Amino acid sequence: MAKEAVFNLKLEPELREGFMAAAQAAHRPASQFMRDFIRPQQQAKEHDEFVQRKVAAARTSIEAGRGRANDDVEAEFAARRAKALGH
Q: What is the pTM (predicted TM-score) of this model?
């Protein structure tokens, strides 16, 4: 990946040494090591936002009277499973 920005950060020497040692131990350049750390953080954030949108949509549906009781949903899908299995 081409360098697009310079990142200057003041931190304690021990923290820098620890970061650089961890990157070296992982056999990664510092920038890749940082990306490898950030990626799952971003994915977790995106997943949390997705879940929040799904929950908000479900609440809106329930408030509009389009909700279904869990027992009804379970019974419907038990019947579908039985039909698919030929029971």
A: 0.61
